[in-house]
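Deliverable D2.4 — example input (structure tokens):
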């Protein structure tokens, strides 16, 4: 709250009046005395015999200061931040019963620019966007750095202030990117390759148990030198091939061809390949 400081002479007539003070809009240059003040009417009463608001001692001095209904010794009225005397000041600020000089009040509670984060002075022209306040020069597109004019369309995207052209480009760019991502073909899965020794270990264990449990599968994977996931997939594929082979063999047994060939023998040379070999 902004309030006038009144120097009172107890030897003179105390009955005099003061001008009403109120806030100014931040949308225009601010008056030097009412930038952050609340509406306030000051009146003076004789403080003779009253206690000082600061030191609580009775005021016996000829001169004292009258602030927001309270009386102060001239040396007791000081800024609570910098402790500078306010005796020679024309005004001070009161907030939560604390006294501030103008500089420290603005530093503590003054409005800050949403772009540069510096304090907005009482004489600054500003622009507003939603709850944000900007210096006139700071109200510019974050993409092209062009200062935006009165009446011009703009957009706030998160913390970004954008002119209409760059906001449109941003939106269309995101749409194009989404389209590109959806049109890209899915990456092919990498096929695992096995050494002859690894295949022999896997096939030998498959002949013992085609569907090992988790613990046994871990042991087989460690023995073969492959990951558990790779071993699991190999056994799944091997069971599928075995089932297919059994179905094929069942059909072939009903119609053996005239050349005496049998079908569905395992090949030991590659991973799970089926080969047709002449019967002895």
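Example output (designed residues):
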């Amino acid at each position: 709250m902004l309030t006038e400081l009144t120097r009172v002479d107890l030897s003179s007539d105390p009955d005099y009046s003061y001008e009403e003070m109120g806030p100014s809009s931040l949308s225009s240059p601010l008056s030097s005395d009412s930038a952050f003040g609340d509406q306030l009417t000051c009146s003076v009463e004789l403080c003779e015999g009253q206690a000082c608001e600061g030191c609580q001692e009775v005021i016996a001095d000829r001169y004292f200061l009258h602030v927001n209904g309270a009386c102060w010794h001239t040396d007791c009225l000081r800024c609570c931040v910098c402790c500078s005397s306010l005796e020679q000041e024309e005004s001070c600020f009161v907030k939560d019963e604390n006294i501030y000089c103008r500089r420290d009040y603005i530093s503590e509670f003054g409005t800050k620019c949403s772009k540069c984060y510096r304090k907005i002075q009482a004489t600054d022209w500003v622009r507003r966007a939603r709850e944000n306040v900007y210096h006139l020069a700071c109200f510019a597109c974050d993409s092209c750095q062009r200062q935006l004019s009165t009446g011009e369309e703009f957009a706030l995207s998160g913390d970004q202030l954008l002119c209409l052209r760059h906001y449109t480009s941003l939106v269309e760019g995101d749409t194009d990117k989404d389209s590109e991502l959806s049109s890209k073909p899915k990456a092919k899965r990498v096929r695992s390759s096995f050494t002859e020794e690894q295949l022999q270990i896997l096939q030998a264990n498959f002949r013992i148990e085609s569907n090992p449990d988790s613990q046994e599968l871990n042991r087989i994977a460690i023995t073969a030198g492959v990951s558990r996931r790779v071993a699991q997939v190999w056994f799944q594929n091997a069971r599928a091939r075995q089932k297919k082979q059994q179905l094929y063999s069942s059909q072939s047994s009903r119609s053996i061809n005239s050349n005496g060939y049998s079908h569905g023998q395992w090949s030991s040379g590659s991973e799970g390949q089926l080969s047709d070999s002449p019967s002895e």
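The chain is about 30% helix and 15% strand.
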